[in-house]
Design goal:
The structure holds three protein chains of three kinds. Chain A is mainly alpha-helical. Chain A has one domain: Orthogonal Bundle (MetI-like fold). Chain A has helices spanning 6-29, 47-52, 56-89, 95-107, 110-124, 130-155, 158-166, 171-200, 205-208, 216-226, 230-253, 256-261. Chain B is globular and about 75 Å long. Classes of the chains: A mainly alpha, B alpha+beta, C mainly alpha.
Chain lengths: 269, 307, 283
């Protein structure tokens, strides 16, 4: 394959700069020693990171986001596994429709889902509750969980099960010793991708969350709506660092390309 | 001076030497095969001629002119790729006429030449199909037509038949040879299949570890292999009493090297024997003439003509 | 009839029936309800909200702005994202993996944090972009980015660009690298190879990326809310206002349902068109 010329590499450098600029700027401003927004050059300070401790609503929102992401991702993966098996292994009436339905949260604007959830939860008495948040998050992260569990289920060679059964293994042993180890990486990655999407979600959650059940992105969004000060940059910097760490771990464990494109890369070519 | 000259051609990738001082002259109209196992440097050699890989040292001359000074797009060579590399978004006709468009050949002339070439490869009626609507053999023919229609000075074939099944491959070998005879284009074929190389070529270049071990007509290379590698790569061979003997040259006789038949495999037109002798296992191939043959466990005597 | 697949899908089906289909139905119904400052939501069937949305030019203008922004973002993403995907695809290990992570990674970083970055880059006197442009002498007065459509378009393009790169990248992955070499041996120059060989094969990827980017741009919320402020409204921020500030839920529901229907029609139409166009070629 032909190499990139100098012009292409210049373009690439500009593109990467454009991609990273806003992220770097947030982290940069977070280190300002001043009481207002500024770009520190000579003096750097951690004062705005220390300041986060004085705002318990950010701390509690952070833990709520972690708990919400973890719980809703586990439930989403647990529900997606049997659905993935059904879609991958059977040809049945309604199969296409089911798949489209399960993938529909990707198609429906999150703002519409937020409105629908708000209306529904208010009517059934779940308005502003953590239970409502969990239900809403399970739905919007379900397509991500399903996509990876489905990839695992499709990639599973049935001959392996038949081989194990022919060697005298029971159904349960086949599940435990053959199927589970083979699909586990897919399940863990599905969980992780679902978690990240839950952790970052703001558009839908802003409708469903109430003052006592705000997630971190919602808290940040509402804060920015009132005013932008260095505090929200230091909180954002923390969020960025946590996400990047998770991203790198996920890339090492599963491959970001496989995760996002949905199939194996061929980096070694 | 030959039509195409490779002079001391060398390519190194870092520490690895892919092609190591290759000298080769190809005459006009000749069909030459570069034959060897994977990693022997045959594909790298082809890519250097085509211009996809730049040699570390050495020269390539076409009609006495330095080919390395010419850009790949201007070399005027026809290449048939292993994957065929057909343009998936273009029909058969569009694929074949692409090269003529690049040369600025006018529409009427272009249509005429494309039609002729498609007739030549036997694809006259598939003109408006897209590549993925064709079988492997048909795609192969399109690739050949696309390379031939520009009337290349040299036709380069990179394992062109390796993606076809065995039966189709044999048919295509015969057809490829006939087409090459008809158009008379100087052709270089890269292959790891010794039967294919021998069936098609005027001369073969047996390559190993970046070097040409032997260059010559197929019959000569088979009968008088220059090195043990050539002997073993071109068909099966036995080393009996220090000399190389082809299995089909050994016969069962009343006297000679004594041995016991270990295994006997029937392969339709011939029998394949493994005979255990005092000199180790000897492979013997005998034509199936319908006569009774020694069974497993029988004691036999082997004789052969050295050559 | 086989029961196993239905039993296996049952948990997911129940969840989606209860928490997606029913709420969406309720939202559609809500858009036909009446509302008043003091009486609140009145569950009757009237066309008041729909009549208002379709007759008041304020809403027409707002929807036109929403789709204009989405179209511009889609265009910019395609024009700048597709070449980058091509460049990425030609890189070698380990650079390819590294830059793929750098360019696609932001997709998973909080939209709020990324938009905050643009607010800092744009912002008044301390805005970095204006400071740089001013010091370079390229402009004489600060350009307005905050609370403008330009600002929303730039920030949204940044937020959604990775989807375009991803889609084009996926299409280029299917491209046989020898195809470019084949064109070269037939006498094609670099520009011809790009225009006649690479671009047509990347086109399905560009189009599917465009559909995704358009849909997400038209329904984007956090970025237009932060950059556009309280006055420059798009469909989703307007719906948000009706729901959480004005409390006129039926009107907000009508705006949301209209946005959903418009997007579904556009996305389905575009997908059908792309599929039909390329069915014969790529299958």
């Amino acid at each position: 394959m032909r190499r990139n010329g100098p012009l292409a590499l210049c373009y690439h450098a500009l593109f990467v700069a454009f991609t990273l600029a806003p992220i770097i700027v947030v982290c940069w401003v977070a280190f300002t020693p001043e009481g207002y927004l500024s770009f520190p050059t000579t003096h750097w300070s951690l004062r705005w990171f220390h300041a986060i401790a004085r705002y318990p609503e950010f701390i509690s929102a952070f833990w709520r986001s972690i708990g919400l992401g973890a719980l809703s991702s586990i439930i989403a993966v647990a529900i997606s596994v049997p659905a993935a098996l059904a879609i991958a292994r059977y040809r049945f009436a309604g199969r296409e429709a089911f798949t489209a339905l399960f993938m529909s949260p990707l198609m429906i604007p999150n703002v519409v889902l937020g409105i629908a959830f708000l209306r529904f939860f208010t009517e059934v008495g779940l308005g502003g509750t953590f239970t409502g948040l969990v239900l809403a998050h399970i739905v919007i992260i379900f397509p991500f969980a399903l996509r990876l569990t489905l990839a695992s289920a499709v990639g599973l060679d049935r001959a392996l099960e038949h081989a194990a059964l022919s060697l005298g293994a029971s159904e349960w042993t086949v599940m435990k010793r053959i199927i589970l180890p083979l699909v586990l990486p897919g399940l863990v990655s599905g969980w992780a991708l679902a978690f990240i999407n839950s952790f970052d979600e703001v558009t839908m959650t802003v409708f469903v969350a109430a003052p006592g059940t705000e997630t971190l992105p919602v808290r940040m969004f509402l804060y920015i709506q009132d005013n932008i000060d260095p505090l929200v940059t230091s909180v954002s910097a923390c969020v960025i660092v946590v996400t990047v760490a998770a991203l790198v771990a996920l890339d090492r464990a599963y491959g970001l390309e496989r995760l996002l494109v949905g199939r194996g890369g061929n980096d070694g070519r | 001076m030959a039509f195409l000259e490779l002079e001391n051609l060398t390519k190194r990738f870092g520490q690895q030497t892919a092609v190591d001082g290759l000298w080769l002259g190809v005459d006009k109209g000749e069909f030459v095969s570069l034959l060897g196992p994977s990693g022997c440097g045959k594909t790298t050699t082809l890519q250097m001629i085509a211009g996809f890989v730049e040699p570390t040292s050495g020269a390539i001359r076409l009609e006495e002119r330095d080919l390395l000074a010419v850009k790949p797009a201007q070399r005027g060579l026809g290449v048939v790729f292993q994957s065929y590399a057909l343009f998936p978004h273009m029909t058969v006709v569009q694929n074949v006429s692409f090269g003529l468009e690049m040369q600025g050949v006018a529409g009427a002339e272009r249509a005429k030449r494309v039609g002729e070439t498609l007739e030549l490869v036997g694809l006259g009626s598939f003109t408006e199909r897209f590549p993925r609507q064709l079988s492997g053999g048909q795609q192969q023919r399109v690739a050949l037509a696309r390379a031939l229609v520009i009337r290349p000075r040299i036709l380069l074939l990179d394992e062109p038949l390796s993606n076809l099944d065995a039966k189709l491959r044999e048919e295509m070998q015969i057809e490829l040879r006939q087409i090459q005879r008809t158009v008379g284009t100087t052709t270089i074929l890269v292959t790891h299949d010794q039967a294919e190389a021998m069936a098609l070529s005027d001369r073969i270049v047996v390559m190993n570890k970046g070097r040409a071990e032997q260059i010559g007509p197929p019959y000569e290379a088979y009968e008088r292999p220059a090195t043990p590698f050539v002997a073993s790569f071109l068909g099966k061979t036995n080393l009996v009493k220090g000399i190389a003997v082809r299995p089909e040259r050994i016969s069962f006789a009343a006297s000679g090297l004594a041995g016991t038949v270990r295994t006997r495999i029937f392969q339709g037109n011939h029998w394949l024997y493994q005979v255990e002798t005092s000199d180790g296992l000897v492979t013997v191939i005998r034509q199936n003439t319908g006569e009774p043959m020694p069974v497993e466990g029988a004691v036999v005597h082997l004789s052969w003509m050295a050559g | 009839m086989k029961t196993a697949p239905y039993l296996l899908s049952l948990p997911a089906l129940l969840l989606f029936a209860a928490v997606v289909i029913v709420p969406l139905g309720m939202t559609v119904a809500l858009s036909f309800h009446d509302w008043g400052q003091y009486k609140g939501i009145v569950p009757v069937f009237i066309l008041k909200n729909w009549r208002e949305v379709f007759s008041d030019s304020y809403y027409g203008e707002m929807f036109w702005r929403t789709f204009r922004i989405a179209l511009l973002v889609t265009l910019l993403s395609a024009v700048f994202g597709a070449p980058e995907a091509y460049i990425l695809n030609r890189m070698r290990s380990p650079w390819r993996g590294l830059f793929l992570l750098v360019i696609l990674g932001p997709l998973l970083i909080s939209v709020v944090a990324r938009t905050l970055g643009w607010a800092l880059l744009f912002g008044g006197k301390s805005g970095l972009i204006n400071a740089v442009l001013l010091s370079l002498g390229l402009i004489s007065a600060p350009l307005p980015f905050m609370f403008t459509e330009t600002g929303i378009v730039v920030a949204l393009t940044h937020v959604l660009m990775p989807y375009m790169v991803l889609a084009v990248w996926a299409a280029l992955q299917r491209l046989d690298p020898q195809v470019e070499n084949a064109a070269i041996t037939l006498g094609a120059g670099p520009f011809t190879v790009l225009r006649r060989i690479v671009l047509p094969q990347a086109m399905p990827g560009i189009l599917s990326g465009a559909v995704i980017v358009f849909a997400l741009a038209a329904s984007a919320f956090a970025t237009p809310a932060i950059i556009g402020g309280r006055r420059l409204k798009v469909a989703s921020t307007l719906a948000y206002d009706e729901f959480l500030n004005t409390l006129n839920w039926p009107l907000g529901a009508a705006v949301a349902v209209l946005l959903l229907v418009a997007l579904v029609l556009i996305v389905f139409g575009a997908n059908r068109w792309v599929e039909r166009r390329y069915a014969q070629v790529f299958g």
